[in-house]
Structure formats: structure tokens, C-alpha cells
């Protein structure tokens, strides 16, 4: 499997801008879009607002060149410097500087600062068969594991087209899962992505609330569709069921040196106290992260998609003993506490 993720050794270009959650969004096709007007914030007379534009990067997608431009607004003398600058507009332009996509953001002001902020960065998510344009958003304040979302654009029939959540794996009359044509029950019916033989397996980096994992996905470049990794499902009498999957992890863990720190090490990713041991965490403890396992839940909100994780397990090795830890307390003990994703 070819591995892809943000901040990897693959081609990556990004720039980070702070902003506020989008409430209005507009898209356009062949003509330059008109951004929706944004509400002007109400700030004390002693403060002023200003706006500026910044290029987030230029990317070649489907043989065409695109540039992502952000418009930001700032409050001078904000009561909280962290909430002093916000994104109020984002535009994607083609090689002729014509707008092919535009999105506007309302900026609410509270107590002399922006009430909520959103970071935005742009990057090319590349595979052997092509590249996607990804806009990554980081929202604050947000619950742990819920502050990261994306807009993903694919070249479809010569146009840059936004994608929704990855489709679950399924089958059609020519292809099947384990020899059985299968579908996945979703809200409102059954949804599938054909198991096209040339769909390319990739990995999409996402923040769990404690660390980054690389979520398995598949990309059908010919039809401009992406889907969830087959390894995250099992075939149950012709229907697919999410069972979770093992994922690579990126983390810098610093185990706790607090006296008395102990983690519960399970033999398998199942809470079974009869097959578990207590491992003390102390100075000099040899600790290695192998991978993570969880049920991946993709969500769509407006034009953005996000990733949440259920039943998260961390595969680790202590002094040569391999096992699994499960609780937030144990994650914190090995130096992976709950927190916001790094920018």
C-alpha cells in the first residue's frame, strides 16, 4: 500500500490561516463565484478590524493548475491574541485566475475577540493515479477529536469537484466482497462503492484527540470517487459490518514519571480482565507504539467531512511484552493525553 498523509515525505504544500466556522458557502462552475457578504463584527471603539489576502498554495490537480487564496480579518488590540485573526473567505482559482470555487465565513465577535476560530491549510493528497486537493480546517474551541475537518476536491470530467465522505465498500454485478455482492446499511438505505479493481489504496491522516492515525481509504481516480478501506469491515452473510481496523500512528509519547502510574495491558483489543496485566510506568520504562485500532466514523457537515473514532485501542510493547491499552487514563500515562491537533 502506498502511504499518503499530510506532513509526509510526499509532495505537500500548506499554509495555515486562522478563521471562524463557516455559516454560508457558495460554489460556482465555469464562472467566477461571488462571495456571500460577511457580517461585519461589532468591536469596541478602541479596536479596529482590517482584512488581507494570502495565498495558501498552488497545486496541479488533474493536469490543471489551481491556486488557493484565503482572506483574513484581524482585530487590533483583541482581548485574546489567540482569537484575534479569522478567516472570512476562501477561493480556488484556475491557471487563468478565474474563480472555480468560493466560500465565505461569518465572523462573530464576543468580548473584544472572535468567538470561534478556524485554521485552514491547503495541500495535494497524491497517489499513483492522480492527486486530490485538500483544504484542512482546525476549529477552536472544539471538543477533543472534533476540531479537525476537510474539504476534498477531485478532478471529475475536467472540473474540480468536491467529494463527500468516503463511500463504504460494497459490490456491483462484476465485483464483490469475499465472493458476495454486498452493501452497507446506512441511514436511509444502503450505500456502496463498487470494488473497482483499480481503486488505489491510500492512507488519510486524521487526529483522534490524542494522536494522528492514518485511515485506510481507496481512490477510484477514473470515476472521481473515494471509499473506506475494505480492511475496516467484515462480511456477515452478504452485508458488511464495521469492525475497526489497524492504523499506523504518528505520535511523540512521553510516559508519565509520576510515582504509582500503572496501565492495564490487555492481550487482545477486548476488555477482558482475565487476560490482562498491570504494568507500572516508571523512569526507564521501555515503551514502543506499534499501531492503533478503532472503528472509523466518517461524517459530513455542509461541505466538510470529518472523522471520529470509536472503541480506540493502542497496540504497544512494554519491555518486550506486546499488548493493548484502551482508556484515556492509560493513554495519558504513556504520554498521549487528550488535546487539540497540532497545526
Strand-pairing-aware structural class: mainly beta
Q: Spans with pLDDT under 50 lasting ≥5 residues?
A: 4-36, 171-190
Q: Could you spell the SSE succession in H and E letters?
A: EEEEEEEEEEEEEEEEEEEEEEEEH
Q: Give the overall form.
A: flat
Main beta sheet: 7 strands, antiparallel
Distance between the termini: 27 Å
Tell me about this structure:
The two termini are 27 Å apart. The longest helix has 6 residues. The protein folds into three domains: 140 residues, no CATH class; 63 residues, no CATH class; 72 residues, no CATH class. It contains one helix and 24 strands. About 15% of the residues have low confidence. Helix content is 2%, strand content 50%. By secondary structure, it is mostly beta strands. Strands 14, 15, 16, 19, 22, 23 and 24 form a seven-stranded antiparallel beta sheet that branches. It has a five-stranded antiparallel beta sheet with strand order 1-5-4-3-2, with no helix packed on it. Strands 8-9-10-11 form a four-stranded antiparallel beta sheet, with no helix packed on it.
Amino acid at each position: 500500500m502506498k502511504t499518503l498523509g499530510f506532513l509526509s515525505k510526499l509532495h505537500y504544500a500548506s499554509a495555515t490561516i486562522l478563521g471562524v466556522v463557516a455559516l454560508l458557502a457558495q460554489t460556482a462552475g465555469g464562472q467566477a463565484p461571488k462571495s456571500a457578504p460577511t457580517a461585519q463584527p461589532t468591536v469596541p471603539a478602541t479596536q479596529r478590524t482590517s482584512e488581507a489576502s494570502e495565498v495558501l498554495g498552488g497545486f496541479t490537480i488533474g493536469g490543471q493548475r489551481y491556486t488557493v487564496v484565503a482572506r483574513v480579518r484581524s482585530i487590533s488590540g483583541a482581548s485574546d491574541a489567540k482569537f484575534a485573526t479569522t478567516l472570512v473567505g476562501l477561493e480556488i482559482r484556475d491557471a487563468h485566475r478565474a474563480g472555480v470555487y468560493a466560500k465565505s465565513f461569518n465572523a462573530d465577535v464576543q468580548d473584544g475577540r472572535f468567538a470561534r476560530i478556524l485554521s485552514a491549510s491547503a495541500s495535494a493528497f497524491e497517489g499513483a493515479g492522480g492527486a486530490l486537493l485538500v483544504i484542512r480546517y482546525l476549529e477552536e474551541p472544539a471538543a477533543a477529536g472534533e476540531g479537525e475537518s476537510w474539504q476534498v476536491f477531485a478532478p471529475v470530467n475536467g472540473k474540480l469537484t468536491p467529494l463527500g465522505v468516503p463511500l463504504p465498500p460494497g459490490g456491483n454485478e462484476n465485483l464483490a466482497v469475499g465472493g458476495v455482492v454486498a452493501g452497507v446499511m446506512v441511514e436511509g438505505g444502503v450505500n456502496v462503492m463498487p470494488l473497482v479493481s483499480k481503486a488505489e489504496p491510500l492512507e488519510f491522516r486524521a487526529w483522534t484527540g490524542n494522536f494522528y492515525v492514518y485511515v485506510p481509504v481507496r481512490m477510484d481516480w477514473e470515476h472521481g470517487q473515494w471509499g473506506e478501506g475494505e480492511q475496516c469491515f467484515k462480511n456477515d452473510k452478504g452485508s458488511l459490518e464495521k469492525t475497526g481496523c489497524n492504523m499506523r500512528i504518528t505520535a511523540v509519547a512521553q510516559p508519565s514519571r509520576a510515582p504509582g502510574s500503572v496501565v492495564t495491558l490487555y492481550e487482545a483489543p477486548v476488555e477482558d480482565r482475565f487476560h490482562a496485566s498491570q504494568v507500572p510506568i516508571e523512569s526507564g520504562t521501555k515503551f514502543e507504539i506499534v499501531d492503533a485500532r478503532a472503528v472509523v466514523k466518517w461524517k459530513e457537515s455542509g461541505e466538510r467531512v470529518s472523522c471520529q473514532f470509536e472503541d480506540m485501542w493502542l497496540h504497544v510493547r512494554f519491555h518486550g511484552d506486546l499488548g493493548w491499552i484502551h482508556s484515556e487514563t492509560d493513554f495519558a500515562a504513556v504520554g498521549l493525553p487528550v488535546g487539540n491537533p497540532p497545526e
